[in-house]
Design brief:
Layout lengths: L3 H11 L8 H18 L2 E8 L5 E3 L13 E5 L17 E6 L2 E6 L9 E8 L15 H22 L6 H29 L34
Antiparallel strand pairs: 1-6, 2-5, 3-6, 4-5
Helix pairs in contact: 1-2, 1-3, 2-3, 3-4
Length: 230
C-alpha cells in the first residue's frame, strides 16, 4: 500500500530539477489533489454501530465521517451476516438530523437494542499520510499526476509573482518558467481528467442523494418491505 512518501517521489518523477519550493509544498499539493479526487470518487466506508435502545446515533461516532463532506449511502438493520438477504432500510425509515450537539442518524420506526448492530455505508474523504493512502490502486497514478499538476501550478505562481523588473533577463526567464509550469500543470491535470472520464467544463458527480420522507406518501406500511417481515 502506498504512503505519502510514494506520492512525493512521484511528483519528483513528474517534475525534475531543483526548485524554490520543497517537500512541504509537495505535501500541500498532495493534500489538495487527494481532496479534489475525493469529490470525484469518494472513499466508501462500512462501519457497524452497536444499538443502545435509542433512535439517535451520532455520526461523530463514525471513524471517517466529515460533516461537510460525508453522506450515508445505505443502512442495514438489523445486521445478520448469516442471512444471505441483508435487511436494508428504506430512506423513509431514517434520516440525518441536525441537533445542537451535532448530526445524528435518526431511526424513524425502530429503536435498535444493545444486542443488535447497525451497518452504515457512507462516503468519506480520502487521506494520504506517512503510513497509508486510501486512494484505490487503480487511481493512484492519476492522482499522483494531479498532485504534480497542483505542484506545477504552485511553481507557476511563484515565478509569476517573483519577477525583478530591474533585471530584464531575470524577468524574462521567470515569465518563461511561469508559462512552462502552467502548461505542464494543464497537461498533468488532463491525464487525471482522462483517467476519471471528466470532460472539459464538467464535474463528475460523486453521488446523488434523494429526499428522505419520514413516512410513505400513502400513510401505510411498505408493500414490498413490511415491518412484520423484518
Amino acid at each position: 500500500m502506498s504512503t505519502r512518501d510514494d506520492y512525493i517521489a512521484a511528483i519528483g518523477r513528474f517534475v525534475h530539477g531543483e526548485f524554490p519550493l520543497g517537500e512541504a509544498d509537495k505535501i500541500l499539493a498532495i493534500g489538495r489533489a487527494v481532496k479534489e479526487h475525493s469529490k470525484h470518487k469518494p472513499r466508501i466506508v462500512v462501519e457497524d454501530v452497536d444499538g443502545d435502545g435509542g433512535f439517535d446515533y451520532p455520526v461523530s461516532g463514525l471513524e471517517a465521517w466529515d460533516d461537510e463532506f460525508s453522506s450515508v449511502k445505505s443502512i442495514e438493520y438489523p445486521v445478520n451476516d448469516d442471512d444471505e438477504t441483508p435487511d436494508m432500510l428504506h430512506d423513509s425509515e431514517w434520516r440525518i438530523y441536525r441537533k445542537p450537539s451535532g448530526q445524528v442518524i435518526r431511526f424513524l420506526e425502530d429503536r435498535p437494542t444493545a444486542s443488535e448492530s447497525i451497518r452504515v455505508t457512507y462516503t468519506a474523504m480520502h487521506a494520504c499520510t506517512d503510513s497509508t493512502c486510501t486512494v484505490a490502486g487503480f487511481d493512484e497514478e492519476a492522482v499522483q499526476a494531479l498532485a504534480a499538476s497542483v505542484f506545477c501550478e504552485m511553481l507557476a505562481t511563484y515565478y509569476a509573482s517573483n519577477q525583478d523588473s530591474t533585471i530584464q533577463a531575470d524577468s524574462v526567464d521567470h515569465t518563461s518558467k511561469s508559462r512552462d509550469f502552467a502548461a505542464r500543470a494543464a497537461r498533468y491535470r488532463k491525464l487525471y481528467a482522462d483517467h476519471m472520464g471528466i470532460k472539459d467544463g464538467q464535474t463528475k458527480a460523486a453521488s446523488v442523494t434523494g429526499d428522505q420522507d419520514s413516512t410513505p406518501s400513502w400513510g401505510e406500511d411498505h408493500m414490498t418491505h413490511p415491518r412484520k417481515y423484518r
